[in-house]
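Researcher: Here's a chain I'd like modeled. Treat it as a single chain, no partners, no ligands.
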Amino acid sequence: MERKDLSDLVNSFTAERSTFIHRLRLMAQVPHRLLVIDAALSQVKSRYPHSGADPNRITQSLIAALAGLGVPFLCTETHELGAEIVASYLYQVHLYHWLEANDCGRFLSDSDL
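Model: Modeled as a single isolated chain. Structure tokens:
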């Protein structure tokens, strides 16, 4: 799991691109991988006031990481919301792992996802 704010995401896909792509390739080998971005998708797609980076290029890089490497990303509006989502995600990963390891099946109930 990796977490980025918008400026870090832009920097990672521009100035530090080769290093970040390498990390994404490593992430692609890990189960339950997730890239969490502490910015709304509309912010990722909008002009960056302190950078000349192309928002479309950054967005397409995220989609390429999803389609080409299988690294999903999730945009959250605030750092706090990102922290809540990460905690919930890790809890669910642990819960389903525990259920499977204890021969309880993959579902909590018949109507569970």
